[in-house]
């Protein structure tokens, strides 16, 4: 097992904006630092599920059956599209009716879990990259999943702290508009580009 190589290989993925990042930053705006933990928990469970399925060889079955893989890709795309549109609507509501936007609860553990489980990039990462560093032992996959979770959680908490710091200096309403609408648009673009790439 090569932990340092894994960290170097996964750092660009773990630290780049994606579904978990977008959901976490949305939650920070709506619920403060506590809102990040539901996203971290959901993403963590998703990472451990990916690690377990790949470590046990179950995910390889999906690769062997293209219709099952396509169904998973479709489910993932629809899930991420729903999350993206929900964020955009939240941002628009914050812009139009700031007092009502506070009622939006943000993303929960379930949304973060589904965003991770059905994320085709996460599946491919665990299918193709991680085995090169894990070796044959199932326990190694769980160790690398723990490293991935630690990196992801640290990054999300640092970014959440930056958002909270910024919120003290700027209007929370406008931060909600920017983070929700911008994050939703980013997630929408990311999802659509991934979907288009899969159609080729």
From TrEMBL:
This is LysE family translocator. The chain crosses the membrane at residues 6-25, 32-51, 71-92, 113-134, 140-165, 177-199. It is found in: Cell membrane. It is a multi-pass membrane protein. One of its GO terms (cellular component) is plasma membrane. InterPro entries: LeuE-type. Its main location: membrane. Keywords: Amino-acid transport, Cell membrane, Membrane, Transmembrane, Transmembrane helix, Transport. Pfam families: LysE (PF01810).
């Amino acid at each position: 097992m090569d932990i340092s190589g894994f960290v170097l290989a996964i750092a660009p993925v773990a630290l780049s904006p994606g579904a978990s990042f977008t959901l976490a930053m949305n939650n920070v705006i709506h619920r403060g630092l506590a809102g990040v933990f539901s996203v971290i928990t959901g993403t963590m469970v998703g990472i451990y599920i990916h690690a377990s399925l790949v470590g046990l060889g179950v995910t390889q079955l999906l690769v062997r059956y293209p219709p099952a893989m396509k169904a998973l890709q479709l489910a993932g795309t629809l899930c991420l599209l729903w999350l993206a549109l929900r964020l955009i609507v939240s941002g628009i509501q914050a812009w139009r009716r700031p007092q009502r936007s506070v009622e939006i609860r943000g993303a929960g553990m379930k949304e973060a879990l589904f965003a991770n489980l059905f994320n085709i990039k996460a599946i491919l990462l665990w299918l193709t990259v991680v085995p090169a560093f894990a070796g044959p032992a199932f326990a190694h996959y769980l160790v690398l999943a723990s490293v991935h979770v630690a990196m992801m959680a640290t990054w999300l908490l640092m970014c959440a702290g930056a958002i909270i710091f910024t919120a003290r200096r700027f209007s929370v309403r406008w931060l909600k508009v920017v983070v929700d609408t911008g994050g939703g648009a980013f997630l929408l673009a990311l999802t659509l580009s991934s979907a288009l790439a899969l159609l080729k």
